[in-house]
Amino acid sequence: MKKAISRTTFKRYLPEMMIYVAVWLIVLMVPVVNNFFELLSGKVEVMRWKGILLLWLNVLPFFLLFMVNNRVLAPFLFLKQKIVAYVLAAILLSTVTFWVVGMISPNHPGIQRQKVEQRMRERGMDAPGSRERPAPRHSDFQRPPFGDMPFFVPLFRGPFLGRMLIALLMFSFNIAVKLFFKSMRDQEAMKELEHNNLQTELEYLKYQINPHFFMNTLNNIHALVDIDTEKAKQTIVELSRLMRYVLYEANNRTILLAKEVQFLNHYVELMRIRYTDKVRIDVSLPTDTGEVQVPPLLFVSFVENAFKHGVSYQQVSFVSVCLQVMGDEVLFYCSNSNYNKSEDQHHGIGLDNIRKRLRLLFGDRYDLSIDETADCFKVQLSLPVSY
């Protein structure tokens, strides 16, 4: 598990690391390429590797600062909104690093003067500064070398200031790249979270429909047990077919429309067993739907509500179901007789859930219309075809 997480984290940060590696490789290769072109043009006779090595040594403090900023300062201070602490830490670390590097550098004025004095002593000459020098007149005043100044004075002039400016640009570049990739990772995480929430909500809605559907079906069987035992047995057989579909097919995100049509046929046959000839049931379902796919249990809620709210045992009733595939659309029609139960039809669990599912699955790419008259309740649904 830890290895899988490490691999995932590495993949997420790989593009950012590749940019850093590419930039530092370019920085290191600049003196090599420059010396190579000088060799081709005849300005030099051999590659000056010693000079290239010295340039790389001058780059080393910047690389160390970059690593500290990239691995410590930026993630633990800047990205955690501790901006003041980050700025102070970056300035302090840069100042100390470049001051120490300047003090131990072979080009430091103090070290250069010590080398000159040592060479002159070896040759038996008086070291400069050993003789008494006359007090300089006002017109002969000269600025003392950096080695004779207080340690903090060179911080505001010369190569130190240039290094600080380069360090500032380097920190800014590092922060800009980090913020860019952090925003991309945050967007990916947000999309993944939204996708997970969407899947969770869809599963919740789907499994809320299933118990509601089975509750109504079991009520039908209960009503038939005392009326007609043979019909009750046949109803149980039809119910087993429906349960098999729900258990083994409805867990998929989409299924073949042909299987959904078969499921609707079984459901309608289950309803026919319960009702008498006073209920006219008209069904028109396609026999060949090709490879068209739809979300499972998408149409049964409408059919279920049609039988539940559109059938009366005292009056002649009707239920009509029609499903067609026309071009790039799946068209579904369902109508039933209306006996002033429209409020239940509009606010039942099934219809509320089907509206939510349609919004989550298709966004604004579907068309659902519900039309109610004094004696009829109609539902029309249009969906885009998917394969």
UniProtKB/TrEMBL annotation:
<dbReference type="Pfam" id="PF06580">
    <property type="entry name" value="His_kinase"/>
</dbReference>
<dbReference type="GO" id="GO:0016020">
    <property type="term" value="C:membrane"/>
</dbReference>
<feature type="transmembrane region" description="Helical">
    <location>
        <begin position="84"/>
        <end position="104"/>
    </location>
</feature>
<dbReference type="InterPro" id="IPR050640">
    <property type="entry name" value="Bact_2-comp_sensor_kinase"/>
</dbReference>
<protein>
    <recommendedName>
        <fullName>Signal transduction histidine kinase internal region domain-containing protein</fullName>
    </recommendedName>
</protein>
<feature type="domain" description="Signal transduction histidine kinase internal region">
    <location>
        <begin position="201"/>
        <end position="278"/>
    </location>
</feature>
<feature type="transmembrane region" description="Helical">
    <location>
        <begin position="160"/>
        <end position="181"/>
    </location>
</feature>
<dbReference type="InterPro" id="IPR010559">
    <property type="entry name" value="Sig_transdc_His_kin_internal"/>
</dbReference>
<keyword id="KW-0812">Transmembrane</keyword>
<dbReference type="GO" id="GO:0000155">
    <property type="term" value="F:phosphorelay sensor kinase activity"/>
</dbReference>
<feature type="transmembrane region" description="Helical">
    <location>
        <begin position="53"/>
        <end position="72"/>
    </location>
</feature>
<feature type="compositionally biased region" description="Basic and acidic residues">
    <location>
        <begin position="118"/>
        <end position="141"/>
    </location>
</feature>
<feature type="region of interest" description="Disordered">
    <location>
        <begin position="118"/>
        <end position="142"/>
    </location>
</feature>
<keyword id="KW-1133">Transmembrane helix</keyword>
<dbReference type="InterPro" id="IPR036890">
    <property type="entry name" value="HATPase_C_sf"/>
</dbReference>
<feature type="transmembrane region" description="Helical">
    <location>
        <begin position="12"/>
        <end position="33"/>
    </location>
</feature>
<keyword id="KW-0472">Membrane</keyword>
